[in-house]
Amino acid sequence: MTQQPTFDEIRRAPKVLLHDHLDGGLRPQTIIDLARESGYDRLPATEAGALGDWFREAADSGSLERYLETFAHTVGVMQTREALVRVAAECAQDLADDGVVYAEVRYAPELHTSGGLSLDQVVQAVLDGFREGSDGRGIRVNSLLTAMRHQARSMEIAELAVRYRDVGVAGFDIAGAEAGYPPTRHLDAFEYLQRENSHFTIHAGEGFGLPSIWQAIQWCGADRLGHGVRIIDDIQVASDGTAKLGRLAAYVRDKRIPLEMCPTSNLQTGAASSLADHPIGLLRRLYFRVTVNTDNRLMSGTSVSKEFAGLVDAFGYGWDDLQWFTVNAMKSAFLPFDERLAIINGVIKPGFAQLKWQA
C-alpha cells in the first residue's frame, strides 16, 4: 500500500489556488503595523499571536454573516498604496513558501478607496505588490476583481477588470452575503463581460442553496462557482452508495463547471458540519470538476498544504488524488489554454512525479 503524503511532502508539491481573498490572508503582525501607521485603533488585540487567535475564533461562528464581519479590521488597514503593496507582496511570498505555483487572488477595489485612492490606483498598487512578491519565487499571481453583491458598482468593477485584463487581472467576481442578494441583480455586468469575452466567477452555493447556483450558471453564465457546496442538495445517495444526480447537478458535472471549494472555510461558515462529511468527498468520487482552495488564510488559519493534508486525513487521499485536484485547478484557471498546458505539463506533473517516486 502506498504511504499517504505527509504535510511536509505536500508543501513541496506544486499547487494551484483559485479562490483566495487578499483581505483574508494578511499576516497578523502586518495588520498591527499598518494599524499603527494609519491610526486605526479598533483592533481587538495588539499582539500578533493573540490577534491571529481572535480572527480564527471569530470566524468559527458557523455563520457566513458573522464570518464576514471580521474583514472590517483587515480592510480598515488597507487604505493606502503602501499598505496594499505590502499586503499583496506578502501574499505572493506566503503562497510561494507554501509551494503554490499559480494563484488567482481576489479583492474588492471599492473597499479600499476611503483613504482617497481611486479604483485604478487600488488595482495598480495590488498588481505592483504581486509583482514584487513573486519576483524570483517561482509563482505567478493574478488578480480577480470583486464587486460586492449588496452594492451597485458591479458594472464599474467589471469595466475595471476588462481594462486591466492584459496586465495581471484575470477576471471578475461578486462576493458578500448571498441571502437576499441574488447574482441576477448584477446581470448587466455579466452580460457586459460576456460581450467582452472576459472571464468571471460567482460566489454561489455557500450560504444559500440551489437557486443561487442555478442563477449564477443559467442566468449569469458563470465560468466557475465560488464554493458551490450546496450542489450536494441536488444529489441523492442510496444506502448502497450509488448516487442519483438531479438536473442541475448533472449539468454542472457534464459541463465541467469548476467548483472552487474551501473545506476549512466551509466548516466555519456552516456550509458543512465536519471535514469527513464535507461534500468534496462525494463530489470527487463522482468526478465533478472540484478544486481545493483556502478562501481566507488568516480567518481559517490555513494554507493550500493544510487543506490538502486535512483531506488526506479525512478521506485517505494519495498523491494521485492531490494531483487530480491540482490539475483540475490549473485547467480551470483564467489563463490562455497554452499557458495552462505549459504549467500542467512542465511544472505540475513533473513535480508530483518526483514526489511520488521519492515516496
From TrEMBL:
Binds 1 zinc ion per subunit. Its cofactor is Zn(2+). The record marks 227 as: Important for catalytic activity. GO terms for cellular component: cytosol. GO terms for molecular function: adenosine deaminase activity; zinc ion binding. Substrate binds at residues 21, 23, 176. It catalyses: 2'-deoxyadenosine + H2O + H(+) = 2'-deoxyinosine + NH4(+); adenosine + H2O + H(+) = inosine + NH4(+). GO terms for biological process: adenosine catabolic process; hypoxanthine salvage; inosine biosynthetic process; nucleotide metabolic process; purine ribonucleoside monophosphate biosynthetic process. InterPro entries: A_deaminase, A_deaminase_dom, Ado/ade_deaminase, Metal_Hydrolase. Residues 14-349 form the Adenosine deaminase domain. It comes from the Bacteria. Gene3D superfamilies: Metal-dependent hydrolases (3.20.20.140). Zn(2+) binds at residues 19, 21, 203, 295. It is an enzyme of class 3 (hydrolase). Its EC number is 3.5.4.4. Keywords: Hydrolase, Metal-binding, Nucleotide metabolism, Zinc. The active site is at residue 206. It holds the Pfam family A_deaminase. Belongs to the metallo-dependent hydrolases superfamily. Adenosine and AMP deaminases family. Adenosine deaminase subfamily. HAMAP family: A_deaminase. Catalyzes the hydrolytic deamination of adenosine and 2-deoxyadenosine. PANTHER family: ADENOSINE DEAMINASE. This is Adenosine deaminase.
